[in-house]
């Protein structure tokens, strides 16, 4: 691949720079790019409940997850865990058609066992993922803003969120605990999340704890070139910071409008489309750098356009044949890219 400097070195004084990995790609060119440019990784799918149990299975199997942990540790890459509690990629037996007592026991057993298994090996967890609705016009009442189609919610009401965080905190007091969601550039959705985080943290501190229960908010960051707006991201990011929590950008990609989840249409980007995408990455990283004191990690959701979950939208920093794109230079040197 082209000889370019490691991305992570451009951000050593700012935040960790991450990307995704998987148990089926722990060697080869993609893994070499991960080692060169990134200092933290998120397993794209292997840590999700459906993969830890095997669909339908009720016994945890950490073989693939452990292979990832060992490979990252050997490469000096930190590990972020994704995700403990979600309404997708989760076996139905955990929460569907069971009593509240059983759902609570399953949730606590899952969180406790998984976090304990990786105690000291995972720096931070997405404890709860995607609990809020889209298209909100106001986020004042966070309970009203919660997704009601989540099996955990149907079994346990909003209490499932706090239960999950408490179990994670008890299992590994040193890991950073995140609430993670998408479309948080929408201010109403961000407000609902911020209000929940504030209420749960105030309650926790009211019990005499000297730290937060929810340490941070993960803004996924699945953006599109046709509507990406750096100021909307900035406004929400500053709202979270004002609540006394850290922020991470947890799943960054900026796709073109040709995207479709799970397809791999072999499109290529024109030079001008690459430059305008590169500018958006540069605007975003320029803004993030200015907030670095409160940002822990910026993780991209895909190394190259071929292997991205939104492949047809060419959202990544590397092309299908692993060459750097304009977007790479936009991240490497935002100021320089925007000045040019
Ligand atoms: C996606 C993965 O990238 C795909 O491989 C998988 O088929 C579905 O999940 N929000 C999340 C991630 O929190 O877990 C999702 O990852 C992308 C959206």
From TrEMBL:
Organism equals Leadbettera azotonutricia (strain ATCC BAA-888 / DSM 13862 / ZAS-9)
Query: For the GH10 domain, which residue ranges apply?
Result: 1-334
Portion of the full sequence shown? 824 to 1163 of 1165
Mind telling me what this protein is named? Beta-xylanase
Family per similarity comment:
Belongs to the glycosyl hydrolase 10 (cellulase F) family.
Sorted alphabetically, the keyword list is: Carbohydrate metabolism, Glycosidase, Hydrolase, Polysaccharide degradation, Signal, Xylan degradation
> Which terms does the UniProt entry file under GO BP?
xylan catabolic process
Q: Which GO terms describe its molecular function?
A: endo-1,4-beta-xylanase activity
Which residues act catalytically here? 251 (nucleophile)
């Amino acid at each position: 691949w082209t000889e370019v400097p490691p991305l992570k070195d451009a951000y050593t004084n700012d935040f960790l720079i991450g990307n995704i990995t998987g148990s089926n790609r722990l060697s080869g060119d993609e893994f070499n790019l991960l080692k060169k440019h990134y200092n933290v990784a998120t397993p794209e799918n292997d840590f999700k409940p459906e993969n830890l149990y095997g669909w339908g299975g009720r016994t945890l199997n950490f073989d693939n997850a452990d292979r990832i942990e060992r490979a990252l540790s050997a490469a000096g890459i930190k590990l972020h865990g994704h995700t403990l509690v979600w309404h997708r990629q989760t076996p139905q037996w955990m929460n569907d058609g069971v009593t509240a007592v059983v759902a609570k026991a399953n949730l606590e057993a899952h969180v406790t066992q998984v976090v304990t298994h990786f105690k000291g090996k995972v720096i931070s967890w997405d404890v709860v993922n995607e609990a809020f609705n889209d298209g909100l016009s106001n986020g004042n009442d966070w309970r009203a803003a919660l997704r009601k189609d989540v099996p955990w919610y149907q079994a346990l009401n909003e209490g499932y969120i706090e239960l999950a965080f408490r179990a994670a905190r008890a299992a590994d007091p040193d890991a950073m605990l995140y609430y993670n969601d998408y479309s948080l550039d929408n201010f109403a959705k961000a407000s609902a999340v911020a209000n929940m985080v504030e209420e749960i943290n105030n309650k926790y501190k009211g019990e005499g704890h000297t730290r937060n229960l929810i340490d941070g908010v993960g803004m996924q960051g699945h953006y599109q070139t046709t509507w990406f707006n750096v100021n909307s991201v900035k406004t929400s990011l500053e709202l979270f910071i004002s609540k006394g929590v850290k922020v991470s950008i947890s799943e960054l990609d900026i796709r073109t409008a040709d995207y479709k989840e799970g397809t791999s249409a072999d499109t290529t980007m024109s030079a001008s489309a690459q430059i305008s995408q590169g500018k958006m990455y540069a605007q975003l990283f320029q803004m993030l750098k200015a907030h670095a004191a409160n940002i822990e990690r910026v993780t991209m959701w895909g190394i190259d356009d071929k292997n991205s979950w939104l492949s047809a939208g060419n959202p990544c920093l590397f092309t299908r044949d692993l060459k750097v794109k304009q977007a790479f230079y936009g991240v490497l040197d935002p100021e320089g890219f925007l000045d040019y």
